[in-house]
Design brief:
The protein contains seven helices and three strands, in the order ββαβαααααα. The protein has 181 residues and is mainly alpha-helical. It has two domains: 76 residues, no CATH class; 69 residues, no CATH class.
């Protein structure tokens, strides 16, 4: 299954399959008629329907750059060929996270993981992070009794921030053939 890299206006990068990409393009076309890549053949007689998101100048439907400020007006999409088959056994959320870790050479900090936050040790066991799950069960939760729950809260926050990275490292150890290329 091929994945497409889509970049939002604020610079966030997502890797989506063709079905998700189709839905996003349809939503973009609803918000900005004629601007999606699939609708380049549509005609639009009113040129004032489009404006530059940077300076507000009127632009033509087919303009790639704003004539006034030079801002890029295209929807950024590039096909990912060398990494398209990586992490196909993961859910889309984890596949996107893992691809970002992989392509950034693990410099990507990762997103907040609500499941890891709410279900700390259970989530760790389910994702194969047995050592972390046992540490939480044996040390953090009993320590919470003496710290009035503060230790458990701190562990939950750390798991929320680092959960995706922890799971990526577990996956990396379980699939060395992907990472030893």
């Amino acid at each position: 299954m091929a994945l497409t890299r889509m970049t939002t206006e604020n610079g966030e990068i997502y890797f989506v399959d063709s079905k998700t990409r189709e839905r996003v393009v349809t939503e973009l076309d609803t918000l900005h008629p004629g601007k999606s890549p699939e609708n380049n053949d549509q005609t639009n007689d009113d040129a004032n329907d489009f404006s530059c998101s940077e300076c507000g100048a009127d632009v033509q439907k087919d303009d790639i750059k704003c004539p006034k400020c030079g801002a890029d007006l295209t929807i950024t999409e590039t096909e990912i060929s060398e990494n398209s088959d990586l992490f196909n056994d993961q859910e889309e959320y984890y596949r996107n996270e893992f691809l970002q870790f992989y392509e950034s050479k693990e410099k990507y900090p990762g997103k907040w993981n609500w499941a890891a936050f709410f279900f700390t040790w259970i989530w760790a066991f389910m994702k194969g992070a047995w050592g972390i799950g046992l540490l939480i069960l044996i040390f953090a939760y009993p320590l919470s009794v003496f710290t009035f729950g503060l230790a458990g809260l701190i562990v939950a926050i750390v798991m929320g921030f680092k959960g995706n990275k922890i799971y990526y490292n577990v996956y990396k150890r379980a699939h060395p053939e992907i990472f030893n290329k």
